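Q: My labmate handed me this sequence with no annotations at all. I'd like to see what the chain might look like in three dimensions before we decide whether it's worth expressing. Could you predict it?
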Amino acid sequence: MGMVKEFKEFALKGNVIDLAVAVVIAAAFGKVLTSLVDNILMPPLGVLIGKHDFSDYFITLSGGHYETLAQAKAAGAATLSYGLFVNAVIYFLIVALAIFLVIRQLNRMSRKPPPSMRDCPQCLSPIPLKATRCKFCTQPV
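A: Here is what I predict for the chain of 141 residues:
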């Protein structure tokens, strides 16, 4: 019975619940970013390069000619799918940029202004940094 109680205390701690919420949000954020890369960014890039679907860039390693990656996979051909790799790299760069921007904003919000007060060494009352004498105990500081 002791182990069940310990597990319950562990599972209901704030950090575990915060982590669970973060995982769920990250999964949803990942789906949004995947959609952004696959449906918004890659089609125009593919059109600029000459193909409508950038993920169809591949090299057939086992011989034969296939128009699409799906046809090559259906035929069981070994392929080097560098278009999918490029999609994954772009996805990674977008995720890294998004995380950078979030962390940067959090760091800006958490910066504390420099202190304007200090404690008197004699009576420990708060006094301004530029003060030369404590207004509470009148000792020089």
